[in-house]
Amino acid sequence: MNEQSVWQFSDDRGQLTSAERRPTRVLAYVQAGATLWDHGIRPSAVFGSGHDDPAVPDTAKTGSLPLAEVAYAGAGAALDVETLLSGEPDLVVAVSYGGGQVYGLAPETAKHLEEHVPVVVIDVGQARTLAEIGERFARLARSLGAEEPTSAARELDAARDRLRALAAGPDGARVLALSPAGQHQAHLARPRMWPELRVLAELGVNLVEPAEGPGANWSTVGWAEAGALRPAVVLADIRVNATPLGELRTSEAWAAIERTARVVPWNPEPVCSARAHARFLALVADALEA
């Protein structure tokens, strides 16, 4: 495709997005922007979700993005069409958790935004495998003239092989993914609902499954109940909407978990590139090895 060709991309709503030429000023949801960066595309700006600070991006989600060089458009109620268009993007890349609804933007904002600029929506929900999500971002990046280096795929293959070998060990260390929710409780992740956790399960990692009950993605329990699951490794949500681990020092139950478990930082909205995924697998492998 040369620079004067009509650019087209069919997104995960089944909607064909087109432009008179290949877009170069990409405004993206922060997770999408960090993923595209790993493929060699520098977004002109990123925006957050209603969980995020409207003034600064959540660094748990930004991956390797050069934040000094990429503008932050804001998050939540601070995002209106005028704000989103202020950087003059020629493409918006958003994510969805199913049903085609744009995550992080009010429905009316998303609707009116699309009247001014092409919008591509990538589904990052539990209906997709992480590999499928990654391939959709890779295909979008290729349409924009960039591609993740082949060395990243080799890094990922090596990380998968290492983790698979460690998980096959005799001890079957129990791994619990959770999001701290204050001094008294935690949200325990249901592994089947999170594409990145399903990868760990496929590689043989012994992920703790919370008891059945309310909550499709999470099971909310007290810290003592979380500790009773005897995790050897804890994947702890480090996004800004989760309670910082440093604030849990006064919780006896959390302190007990920390004494016996390796704690690995976890971002439930992962950067969906091979290199970022390899880094996460390496952290889990390091914890299991220790």
UniProtKB/TrEMBL annotation:
Establish whether keyword Signal is in the entry.
Answer: yes
Q: Which family does it belong to?
A: Belongs to the bacterial solute-binding protein 8 family.
Organism encoding this protein = Streptomyces brevispora
Q: Which of UniProt's keywords are assigned here? A: Signal, Transport
**Chief location of this protein?**
other
- Gene3D superfamilies in the cross-refs: Nitrogenase molybdenum iron protein domain
Q: Which residues form the Fe/B12 periplasmic-binding domain?
A: 50-257
Give the domain of life: Bacteria
- What is the name listed in the Swiss-Prot or TrEMBL entry for this protein? ABC transporter substrate-binding protein
Q: Which residues form the signal peptide?
A: none
Could you tell me where this protein is found in the cell?
Answer: Cell envelope
What Pfam families does UniProt report for this protein, alphabetically? Peripla_BP_2
Q: Which PANTHER family match?
A: FERRIC ENTEROBACTIN-BINDING PERIPLASMIC PROTEIN FEPB (PTHR30532:SF24), IRON III DICITRATE-BINDING PERIPLASMIC PROTEIN (PTHR30532)
Q: Which InterPro entries match?
A: ABC_transptr_periplasmic_BD, Bact_iron-sidero_bind
What are the top taxonomic ranks of the organism?
A: Bacteria, Bacillati, Actinomycetota, Actinomycetes, Kitasatosporales
